Amino acid sequence: xxxxxxxxxxxxxxxxxxxxxxxxxxxxxxxxxxxxxxxxxxxxxxxxxxxxxxxxxxxxxxxxxxxxxxxxxxxxx
Length: 77
Fold this sequence. Notes:
This protein has one helix at 53-76; strands at residues 7-17, 21-31, 35-39, 44-47. It is an alpha+beta fold. The mean pLDDT is 70.
């Protein structure tokens, strides 16, 4: 049986609003040797290796930026 490294990051974001109350979004990022998996409102399975780690980080940045834009749009409603 081969042992592989596993890294997990749990992200939790809570937004409070007078009109909508409190909203919590939870995401889990799991990195294994050959793939990365996001579990949450947007579940994604990605091939992962040391070579494409930069692309994975760029994808994370896009997800964070998208979440910020959605929060801002909801705030403006």
